[in-house]
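[agent] plan:
  1. take the single chain provided in the ticket
  2. run structure prediction with default settings
  3. attach structure tokens to the ticket
  4. add a short note for the reviewer (M.T.)
[agent] executing step 1
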Amino acid sequence: MDRIFRGKTTEQGHIVEVECNGETSLLSHETHRNIFQTDRDAFDFSPKLYTWGYDGKCAGYLAGAILFAVTDDAKLSLEDYPLFKVDHVSRWAEHWEISEYEIREWLRAVGAGDVWKIGE
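[agent] step 2 finished; step 3 output follows
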């Protein structure tokens, strides 16, 4: 299963879609709460939508949510989202796309462990 994560900017704001096996769903805006609840002091749980293209808090929420969606590992997502945000999320334009494979390769490159077994 190689999911594709896509972001697009619309009149309603930023939308992040996840495509898997030909079906598309939205990345939940509540996902960051599931990830970061183990570190409540670090986040104020902003209700804002995910954003990208800059190095801010909501871009961090998106980075963590994507890593969690791929790995299903809150600890790993908390540890690695800042670098994923800098390396990817902060550089994305209005419309972007990244595959699960690319994310796992990035995790492997930064030494996140056996990322091909995480989340499967």
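[agent] step 4 note for reviewer: The radius of gyration is 13 Å.
[agent] ticket updated
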